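PROTEIN DESIGN WORKSHEET
SECTION A - STRUCTURE
LENGTH: 107
TOKENS:
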């Protein structure tokens, strides 16, 4: 299990425990965190699970692959460094303490 903090655009924090093997997107969905729509269900075929990873976590996560980088082009106000799709971040003990901030909206 990893504790992940999801911060809504308005500043509301949701700290949830997510089981290893799930994705950060599934953790949000399963715990009712608003703002992550996940329209494609985690297939990396949309950008509706877009978040901004806290700066101190950018280098700790596995790098984006080409497909994720391409999908982020369709996200709301993507940040070239901090934007990630939560469906592509696997939960392991290594992401315990991860903090992500949700954009103003998903598109």
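SECTION B - SEQUENCE
RESIDUE ASSIGNMENT:
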């Amino acid at each position: 299990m990893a504790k992940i903090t999801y911060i809504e655009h308005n500043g509301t924090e949701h700290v949830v425990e997510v089981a290893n093997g799930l994705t950060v997107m599934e953790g949000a969905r399963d715990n009712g965190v608003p703002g992550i729509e996940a329209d494609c269900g985690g297939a990396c075929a949309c950008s509706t699970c877009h978040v901004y990873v806290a700066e101190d976590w950018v280098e700790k996560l596995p790098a984006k692959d080409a497909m994720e980088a391409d999908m982020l082009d369709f996200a709301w106000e993507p940040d070239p460094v901090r934007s990630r799709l939560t469906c592509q971040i696997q939960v392991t003990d290594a992401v315990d303490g991860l903090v992500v901030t949700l954009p103003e909206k998903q598109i």
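SECTION C - NOTES
The chain is about 15% helix and 20% strand.
The beta strands are 2-7, 13-18, 50-53, 83-85, 99-101.
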